[in-house]
Amino acid sequence: MHASGKENLQVVLVSAVALFDEEGRVLLAQRPEGKSMAGKWEFPGGKVIRPTPIIVTWGLSVYR
Question: DSSP letter at 1?
Fold first, then answer.
C-alpha cells in the first residue's frame, strides 16, 4: 500500500473520440445491457491494447 493509503492501481489506457457532422450533431454510443451503466450514452472509445496505435483504436471504436 502507498503512503496515500491507496493500493497499487494498474494504469489502463483508454481512448475516446467525439465526431460532429456538418449540422453539429454528435455521434454517441449507448452502453449495452449487461454492462456497467447499461443504457447510458457515451462517446465511442475503449481500452487501448498495445501495440495497437491509438488512432487505430479510434477507428475500431467508430466502425463497431
Answer: -
